[in-house]
Fold these 2 entries.
Entry 1:
Amino acid sequence: MSIAGCSGEGGGGNDGGEGGGDGGYLEEASQLDWSSNWQERLGYANALENWPGESRQDVAPDDSPTDWEGREAITSAPWQPPEGWDETSAADVDSIQILNFGSLGFDPATVARHEMVTDRTGIGREYLTPEVNTAIPKQQSFLSAGQDRPTMFNVELQTFTSWVQNGWIAPQDPLWSDGMWEPFPSVVQDVLTSDRDPSRDGTHVYYAPQIMNMPVYHVNRALLEDHGVDPEIASGEWTWSDLETVMGAFQDSDVAGFAHHGANDVYTLFDFLLMVYQQGGFIIQDDGSVQFNTDVGQEALGRMVSWREDGLTPESVISYGQGDLTDVFLAEQAAIIWRWSSFISEGMNQLGDDYYMAKPPAADTGPDPAQRALFNPNLLAINPHASNSEKMAALLFADANRSYPAQWWEYTYEGNLSYANRVYDDAVELKDTLPAWQQEYSGAIREVQELSSVEVWPSMNSTQIRTAEEISLAISGSKSAEKALGDLQAYIDQVLGQ
Amino acid sequence: MSTQSAKIGDRIPLYRVLRDRVAQVVNDHIKLVLLGPALLALFLVFIYPVVYMFYQSFFFSTLGAAEPRFVGLANYVTLFEDPAFTRDFVTTLQYSFGSVTIATLSGLAIALAVKQVDSDRLRDAYISLIMAAWAIPLATAGLMWRWIFHGQVGILNKVLRDIGLVSNNIAWTADPTLALMAVIFVDSWVRMPFAMIVLYAGLQSIPEHMYDAVKVDGATTFEAFRHVTIPYLRPSLFVAILINWMFAWRAFDIVFTMTKGGPGTSTEVLSVLLYRQGMELFNFGYTNAVAVILVLVTMVVGAFYVKVILQRVDEE
């Protein structure tokens, strides 16, 4: 797992924290002992012994994924708030408001860890669940207006730096001390910290780990077989050439061999990035500049354009945005798509033995082709305008987010990646207790994860939106790939002042 | 029965004095009292926001900028030099006039057809069914038609193939021209019921003896339509066209839910541009400038329409 970024050097979190306008929140938070005995308190010490497999079994049922209250998995989960929390202002809080991207039915692991906090502290939750496309404008709205609610909210990758740059995220420095980053890959510290807050000097911790998405490829072997293609073509090592073989076999059919996003939507950007990374390229160059108009970028976009021009991808691809590929795949109108790893269980349930998960294809060109994917992290932030007591309460939720049980549920129940490495090792140990899809694919997911990366740069939101637009224009034939990337690069150079 | 009346020297209770004074003020300013709350609401929800929007359009304001910075007409200069704005302006013209044309013509045709139905109950049933389309929220209608037009799993393609009109699926929302036609069609579909009901009401007001008179003169059905129906319908047509156009000009829901302005930017109308600039790129000053243009065009066209067309209608 790796990260590249030009948002500032990642550094250690600071104990306590300075900065104006905190009204004593950081001072009060610093008085709690978050770090002593953290391995036991957060559940990382002797996890298998302290939380045996049988205790983890009583989870919310599939048909009611948010029904976690009172379950043994919650009551036995090894997380405790720091000692003395009930003598802080957090004890006066009855409930806090949390903004979650989308319905909680799609985030049951989130509900589980929140229920764990409620079980230990009595602090309740009230949820706002806007759809992700409207959630970002909503966040911008309440943060810029200085509203004190919601107290906690998800933050997507493209707004990480923007919100910090505006001073709209409360720091979480007291949670972290040296050594506490140990359960997580080094990239996590880089992702959670920033030095871009104009009201503070130095690097501070602004986020808690929430969700880590990673795309994998989903295959319908029956459709492949029906069209004369080796149904196992995507198993193991495969390349873009194999993918084009699949697409060619479906060319005269109403069903697509492979479908990707092409609408003016941020998911179209992910398709582009996947193809860049699969060639071994990057967006952030060695000199720190952000470059889309590179050889690997031209190759990636050129391929997408030529696939559509040659009829290898359906014309409809230009209208596919977030969510469309899963609909098309489940309707058996596409043999191969990519989607987050959390889709695996749904694919298996719908298609049964006709379904299998594949690692991404490697490019058949480029400086270092490999079967790479990307990470799409989602983090938890605290509203700086909330009252001190609610911020203290939110800090308890942030603390629970990085705990072993929270990361366990993210991976084993919801199918997202875990931020904590330990979870994967324990999942192998407890393989027999896991859902069928994880027993089958955990190893492959881990292999993809080791090759994948995430890049973060300033003003990411506006550059991502413009990137999706230019890619969409090129795929639709309104512009050539060269012009689209040229125009895009000119815009990025202007925005970033590079 | 006894009466009490105030005599000189009697003390009048304070509440009666106040009550009488208030009653006097209300009587003297009765128009303001009755209209005041409505005017205040209008000011708060319309006039003040529009004026503030106009004011904000002279500032550079974006995410990350410390304070909004006065830049005069710079946002408007950027806007008129931006090919994206010109492109979207043209698209919006095509969208709004296309939608209004289809909605008005189809609304008129349906109103004329419904008027021919003899049974009151059946006529009311038809009207209710047609008005049901108007009751659907625009975003819902957009999503519904998005699925109908879906290139691979949409029911429209299935029906067309089943009846043999096409042999391959048509990517309705993937082709720039077809996508624009599709969103115009859907917009006209949601606006047609309003046109229909307004025109139907207009048809009801046409005196029957006028048709009798022209029939006596030997006029054909078409001539009766041309020389009786249309002239009498002009006020209703005026209302239906103007109001539908004003809504179509500012339409967002249909386009955003169906195509999000795609494929590429072929269906991006000004309201979608406004959303992108404001809600995604946080370029607030520029967004307000776009909004000002939207409002100004609406006002100018509306004023022209009222002044010129309505005057002509009144004269006739």
Note: The domain at 80-315 of chain B is CATH 1.10.3720.10 (MetI-like fold).
Entry 2:
Amino acid sequence: MGKNKKMAVKIKKEYASTVIAFGNSGLPLGQRDDLSDLAIIAHQSKDPSLLKLFETLPSLEDLQREKVQALLPVLSAIAETKDPPQE
Amino acid sequence: MLCVLMQGYSRACGGVTGGISDIATFDPSDFNFTQTTATSAYSAVALRTGAVAADGAKVFIINFQDKEAEWTWKQSKNGCATKYEHEFKFQLVENSNTLTNFLQALDAAACCCGLGLFIRLNSGKIFVAGEKYVNAASIPKFTVAQDGSDGTSGKNFDDPNVGNILLKGDYSRNLREFSGAWSAIEALM
């Protein structure tokens, strides 16, 4: 889930084959579809070895906002199933 | 709060499984762990600059005898000084030249650099021991080394022919988790 095309998280070309073990996969960075998660980790940790991987790195606020926005339809669907309309 | 900031301990209600599923070892100088806060689990791990997988900078799986591995820890204090003694025990089947070479590799690591360990419990949680670099900076040394292994050929046909490996390491805290999946670590093997 989360193609995250809106957020311009881009890895530098020279790191496309680099493997960073995070989340559920160890695919090379050029093949990952969860780079936003790595971007959030990089921001929160301020780990220079991760920060250097990114050509474009949106702000932490933007990344977290997009993560929440992706979940909103799911949360709404759950809420509707749980609580039938009242009043 | 007047003296110390306490905290509680709670977990979601439910059963938990014991035992160890997998153990893997690595050279602590090869890998950097990423931690988002001072108390969080490690969320990423990657090769450090200069460490090349093709030259041996990898994570190595240890195929131990099923249901014969255990991690134990014991906390003690001396005044305000606290120590956590960690022990990692696992049984390797068959005394052989391969086992001899593996034990020598453990001894060499202990002398020079320490051993790094990933331990996946049957509960699913993954722990890290012996790590050296966090957020691209070295942390106080956590040296895990072989200390007290033994073995036996057995006497009878149906006696175990095994090595009982014992790794030990003292540190200032319990082990940190790695919050990623084991499949992510397998990519480093």
Note: Residues 29 and 44 of chain A are 19 Å apart (CA to CA).
